[in-house]
């Protein structure tokens, strides 16, 4: 492993990860970049630091905190900007004065802790009176119940109504988004700016739905505040990809490997059948099988 890279343990995302997790994590931060322009931002539980670095491309100032010292030391070496500061601290007791930030970003932190009320109280404390929290967490119904997946690093996952009750106890204004990785085909005009998006999907073989999403999201991403005027105008939807198309690359590599394995197996079976059909060798093979 390179000195520049942190090991992926399953708990902390790193940019060297592949497949769906890469898209899920980067997309949240890129959406948040649409909100933080010119603002003072706290990235709570920043992990490896890639997201804090992205936010700092748009924000006036970013302070990124994480309880893991090795992650913070790594982030300080790898990501350097004049408006970006990394701090080793517990998100339940952030050593920063009250009313310090315009925006607090907390992605995939909540489910790793049991002290949900304390966490939200701490975020509210460091936010300015008109500040905005951007927070995400998996939907327990989709992430765990439906899949049967048990994430050993998750301490307390929430259903949607539980997450809503938690947010309601601290913030009066909320805008909810759902996130789900989907296989899509994209058509776009090549010679004009892209200003509109039209969703089309089949609910069955004959029903085309052109407005709204019938899917249940895997994750909730919520903007929360106590001031209606602070709620940033969001787009209806956000679509994310990357030039290398790493998810497709991995998908195609796996498919090719399966096709090759199937062809190799078929060729082996044909060779075995050929020997079984041989009048002498076939008789010997059947005799050995009986033995």
Strand line-up in the sheet with most strands: 3-2-1-4-5-9-6
Rg result? 25 Å
Low-confidence stretches: none
Backbone structural class:
alpha/beta
Q: Which range does the strand content fall in? A: 15-25%
What is the count of β-strands?
Answer: 9
Number of helical elements:
8
Order of helix and strand elements from N to C terminus: HEHEHEEHEHHEEEEHH
- End-to-end separation in angstroms reads 51 Å
Q: How many strands, which pairing sense, and closed or not: the largest β-sheet?
A: 7 strands, mixed
What spatial form do the alpha-carbon principal axes imply?
elongated
Please state the average pLDDT score: 87
**Overall helicity:** 25-40%
Describe this structure in words.
With 291 residues, the protein is α/β, with parallel strands linked by helices. It is built from eight helices and nine strands. The protein has helices at 20-33, 50-56, 69-78, 116-126, 140-145, 160-168, 246-276, 281-290, and strands spanning 40-44, 61-66, 84-88, 101-107, 127-138, 173-179, 201-202, 208-209, 219-225. The chain has a seven-stranded mixed beta sheet, sandwiched between helices. Strands 7-8 form a two-stranded antiparallel sheet. The relative contact order is 0.12.
